[in-house]
Amino acid sequence: MDITIRIGGEAGQGMQFIGSALAGIFTRRGLHVFTHQDYMSRIRGGHNFYQVRFSDRPVRCSREKVDILVALDGRTIEVHRDDLDPRGIVLYDERMTRSSYPEPRFKNIPFLALTEELGLAPIMANSAAVGAILGGLGLGLDTYAPVVDELMGKKGKEVAASNLRVARAGSDHVDKMVWPGHLRCGEPGGPPLLLLNGSQAIGTGAVVSGCRFYAAYPMTPSTGIMIHIASRAKAHGIVIEQAEDEIAAINMALGASFGGVRAMTGTSGGGFALMVEGLSLAGMTEIPVVIAEVQRPGPATGLPTRTEQSDLLFVLHAGHGEFPRVLFAPGTPEQALYLTNKAFDLAEKYQIPAIIQSDQYLADAEWSYPKLDPAPLRCLDYRDRATDGDAADYQRYRFTDSGVSPLAVPGLSPRLVVVDSDEHDEEGHIIEDAETRRRMVDKRWRRKWPALRAEIAQPLLYGHDRPELLLVGYGSTYGIMHDAVDILGENRAAAMLHFSELWPFPDPALGDYLNILRQARLAICVENNATGQLARLIRGETGFEFPAFLRKYDGRPFLLEPFMDEIHGLIGKI
Question: 450: which residues sit within 8 A by CB, 6+ positions away?
Fold first, then answer.
């Protein structure tokens, strides 16, 4: 079983409610889920859709072909009818689409009338759609009640109960219709699954890592991280500050970190551009900070609600001067959770900025998991919090073999903590002599680098251990490459090499990935950008030149069927 549902309509019609409700119901029934959203940058109107793929086995990307198209307006049918599987169906209300469709695969369901007959507001018609889908699939409504309580809890029990009544009316209506047998999934067993998107995973990673201050200016698609942390703020004693701009946000985070708490900020590419001076300030002052940079297409305002991987080299090289940083690009919510935790750990351990790079696709896409193991999570305190000590003995920037100097918390003891954005001596006071400058650069950069690089994991190899066909990518291309390898592996030696820890770049001497790249008959670099930024980074660090590329830069993610067609096209050329 592998079924894709696409819900389309205007912003404000409740597509997100339908998609979220279905995803929640499916995972509660033990079904594996992958969702993604495509929406315009407006509050009302336009054309948007929410896609839910569910299966009895894990799924990691979206398909192009749709089994069930739910049309909340006529535009949805115009835009998506060519994507309908030959055996797929369309659910619509002719009052909402303002058209009637005589074809057997079009199912006219009076969502609005069913709602009005119960004396309820038209906006609840989206629950009639949920009920119709569940009834047609044969899943029943027993798991809808807790899901609608979760989604509508703040609006009161009466609203939740009314939505449940409308859903039951939609399900009863479908019982009288002819529904394709291949789109009935019976009663799945298995324990409930966890549903998590990229923003929630990064936010959760921050919370479990001891983050106690988060400052940001809301910028799509990074705002979900702030919202998720804010929802946990009271329980965990976290201070959330909506700053007036991104310059203020990063400087607030640096100030909080200087004051002794773990701090984070988040933004997208345009906001990160404003943070760059603060990034260099963190490098000079050696103040730990974690930054989430969630990509969208640029330059300038670009496409605010779409996806792209075009900020890699910008973020990697941002900032004036030379200083170490770490850059992680998770490919799944699970990776996002663990890599955010690792970013906090390394930022504090080495007193550097750590960057988590995501994108709109990963931020909003929901994945299902049986569970997430808390064992790998770390939250160690690397700061000197002693309340006594001789002030004369403390040097904030003491020269050490590791390059890591003592990091005391101001105000906890008689020791004076001096920090300056100018070049400084061991005590933190401004200098201008050449010898101290050289030694400080060595301390910040050369001495920290070997140990920091040793912390970086090798890229993940999935599939054949000596593949003839190798897909290579980073970040959110994980899912599409993984599912493609599963398909390709049925007939050939195929694998994927996925980079999620990008800087320091993984040392080829500590693993076998460079040999795997060189020995593959065809290595294809997969990226959501126009210039092949990962390919350029790999060439610069290893000398390896990719013979083939798959690049997508229209603001949309790769979808499975056209992705496979492109791969077969490249295979046919060798």
Answer: none
How far is Cα of residue 437 from the mean position of the Cα atoms in its chain? Answer: 40
pLDDT tens-digit series, residues 17-29: 899 999 999 999 9
Q: In what order do the strands lie in the sheet with 494-499?
A: 460-463, 494-499, 469-474, 522-527, 548-551
What gap in Å lies between CA 173 and CA 36, rounded to an integer? 28
CATH tag for 2-192 (out of 3.40.50.2300, 3.40.920.10, 1.20.120.740, 3.90.76.10): 3.40.920.10
pTM attached to this predicted model: 0.94
Quick one: which of 469, 427, 440, 426 has its CA closest to 573?
469
513 phi and psi, to 5 degrees?
-65, -30
196-369, CATH topology level: Rossmann fold (3.40.50)
Distance CA 141, CA 131 (A): 7
CA distance 430 to 421: 9
Torsion of CA 535, 538, 540, 545, to 10 degrees: -60
CA–CA separation, 129 and 135 (whole Å): 10
- β-pair type (194-197, 366-369): antiparallel
Lowest mean pLDDT among 99-108, 285-294, 325-334: 99-108
305 and 41 Cβ atoms separated by less than 8 Å: yes
pLDDT tens for each residue of 80-120: 999 999 999 999 999 999 999 989 899 999 999 999 999 99
- What percentage of the chain exceeds 90 in pLDDT? 84
Q: Which are the contacts of 298, defined by CB distance < 8 A and separation ≥ 6?
A: 269, 270, 308, 310, 311
Token pair recorded at residue 516: 């795997």
Domain 196-369 shares a fold with domain 460-571: yes
Strand order in the sheet with 32-38: 106-108, 84-92, 66-71, 2-11, 45-55, 32-38, 366-369, 194-197
Token pair for 301: 């305002």
